[in-house]
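Human: If only I could read backbone structure tokens as easily as an amino acid sequence. Take your time, and here it is.
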Amino acid sequence: MTVRPILNPKGFLASALVTLLFPLFLLSSSALAAGQPAGKESFYQLERQIQLGFQGPASGKPTALALDSKGRLFVVCSLTNEIRVFDPSGRLLFAFGQEPTKQGKGKGKGVTLSEPSGIAIDKQDRVYVSDLATDKILIYSSDGELKGQFPLHQPEKGRDLCAPFIAYNPFDNRLYISDACNHQIGVYTLSGELKATFGTAGGGDGELSGPAHIAFDSRGNIYVVDAGNFRVQSFSPDFKFRYAFGKNGTKEGEFIRPYGLAIDARDRIYVSDFISNSVQVFNQKGEYLDSMRQSSNPRLFSQPLGLAWANNKIYVVNAETKVVSVFDVSK
């Protein structure tokens, strides 16, 4: 029997595997969003909130995002099976991935997304979207035109891959794809050739349980949200284990359901947790720095999922409110 990813974007709150791996309780956002210590100056500032244009609780469900070289924002919307594209000011430009007659500017050439979950954009502004239902990566131009696709399943090895998350590594020009079924990371060329894998199932150093989002620091080190083990692991560019941080809990530096990951120009590490409604920040050693918050808005985050960094800004997708929160982190 195939075990689907523990963080399936369409059913992550009801997954049976989540029930097995995670505690059966919900945490108020206040546990990790206590008031800012007196006299402590924040290095982040909420700049704006981008409304994604969905109405009603059953529409949209944004889960991930990425930015191109023009600063345009590409947002994965899993329930509507589309990618929505916004200009830097937050104005909706077009969408692609749905039925061709509804795509607007995007040109899918008859191929639609079935269950989009992850997204990455390379140096040439090619857009890569992982489709959880078909176990494929679809490749689009920045205008939403389908340019190619490649499968992720490995029938010759007699196993399925569950690949909800994808990241582009600018250091080696390859795609890193988390395989939540086999608890490993696959490294692919941009045309879909598998070059390497790392990670095995387990809870030890370098072992993974339901890996989620992936990010890279300024030295090319690799960071993986090890969701089933409630932590983040760091690997060297040649895939050797470096260190891990985090554990299950409600205190600072602990996680309930870690999900999104981003790293800024100062190598600060941002981790979203969609149950505690928090985004925690760590230094390059994995030491806790802060939890992003706004004193006037204790519900700043509402099911924060995907994160992205670009141009000294951190972008946070809020699945429940269907908003992208944009923070200036230039300090």
Notes: Residues 16-21 form the longest helix (6 residues). Residues 1-6, 8-39 have pLDDT under 50 and may be disordered. The radius of gyration is 18 Å.
